[in-house]
Amino acid sequence: MSRRAYKVKYTKAQVNEKARKLATRKLPVRVPTPKQKALSKLHWLPVQNEEFTTPEDLREVEVPDEWTAEDGTRKEKVLVSADKEGLTVIVSDANLKEGSCERIVRNFAGLVYKEVTGEELREDEVDLSPFAMFRHTICEFCGEQTEGNSFTCPVCKRCFCYDHRSPESHGCNREKSRGETVEFGSKASRSDSGKERRTTVAIRKIFCG
Fold first, then answer.
1. In the prediction, which pLDDT does 206 show?
2. In what order do the strands lie in the sheet with 179-190?
């Protein structure tokens, strides 16, 4: 079960600074206040020797479905915070398999790196350290602990509480989610006919409620 917080630190200080500014500029939609308060109550168990508390300035980002295809989930979200040391990325869905957390975080770190440098991320250019974890299962919509009464959505396969267990209550049945598309890693190429085509990985900023 993937319920961990990662510190993403690039080896170059200038890349960390650019990543911080990028996250602040391109991910301006903060986690709604009720969810932020619920997340602040989480009891984190340190993976390293330092204590960890939920960051106050979290932004919620929907990641591409191909990142979680192996887990069978859709519309998966990560929580992102930026500070002078780098990025904090939290993967909270209890329905994700072991090992998925680092893969999702590495993919996200790679997109940010490519956006600020124009290059692909190599393993030696970033430190992805699992910083802390929590044992409780939480609702992916409101952030409240489910206390053993968690439900899996039949559409997106993510974990929710009783109040938000139906697809309608957390937005799964909406044809178009309210939000905006944030593009990372947009790259142009040419088809056999010579026409330019553009490949883009899109991350959605979701407005909850």
1. 33
2. 45-46, 126-133, 4-10, 86-91, 77-83, 59-62, 196-206, 179-190
* pLDDT for residue 176 is more than 60: no
Structure tokens at 56: 């106050």
Distances (CA, A) of 185 to 1, 108, 118, 119, 120: 29, 11, 8, 9, 9
pTM for the complete prediction? 0.80
Report the helix count and the strand count for the chain, using DSSP H and E. Answer: 4, 10
188 has pLDDT over 70: no
DSSP single-letter state for residue 67 = G
Separation CA 125–CA 76 (nearest Å): 26
Q: Which residue has the tokens 């979290």?
A: 58
Domain parsing of the chain, residue ranges: 4-206
